[in-house]
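Sequence, please.
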């Protein structure tokens, strides 16, 4: 009966090896064992390399998918920044009309048109994930507010936003433009 793990137990192999000295057989057996060990080590190294390559491929795929998702989500950033000046100008136009002129029959339609346009622009901003940053009355947040000046105040805690000079906006979870604000400092 032949043994797959020990080919020397096979009668045909034994007959062939009958005249070979034991020392030579032992040397050759050691060489074959060493070669087999090296092959096993090489196989393990190759398996590890394949695992690393698969992991790297997955990482690259995930990064690419995230980049594509970010590109889709934030594609309108440049256009949105440009539209912020339009929103600012509409706001300034509305703020510049005194209350008595708003009630004048000749200007009511004009003012109503500017207000409707401003509301529509806000609605479109909202549909695209663009939101206005809250500022007045809140503590200064350097991630969302840019302090343009400090105003002495005994009524408000230092570091509190007292006035919004220019509205700030976020697009989804990213800053589009910081709010430019006046911040309270300790009164004298």
């Amino acid at each position: 009966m032949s043994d797959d793990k020990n080919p020397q137990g096979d009668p045909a192999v034994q007959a062939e090896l009958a005249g070979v000295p034991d020392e030579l057989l032992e040397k050759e057996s050691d060489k074959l064992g060493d070669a087999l060990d090296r092959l096993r080590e090489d196989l393990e190294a190759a398996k590890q390399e394949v695992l690393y390559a698969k992991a790297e491929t997955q990482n690259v795929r995930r990064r690419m998918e995230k980049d594509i998702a970010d590109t889709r989500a934030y594609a309108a950033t440049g256009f949105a920044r440009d539209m912020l000046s339009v929103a600012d100008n509409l706001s300034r136009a509305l703020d510049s009309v005194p209350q008595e002129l708003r009630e004048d029959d000749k200007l009511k339609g004009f003012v109503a048109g500017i207000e409707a346009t401003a509301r529509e622009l806000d609605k479109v901003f909202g549909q695209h994930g663009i939101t206005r940053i809250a500022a007045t009355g809140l503590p200064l947040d350097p991630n969302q507010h840019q302090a343009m000046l400090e105003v002495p105040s005994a009524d408000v805690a230092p570091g509190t936003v007292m006035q919004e000079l220019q509205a700030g906006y976020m697009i989804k979870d990213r800053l589009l433009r910081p709010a430019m604000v006046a911040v309270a400092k300790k009164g004298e």
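The chain is about 55% helix and 20% strand.
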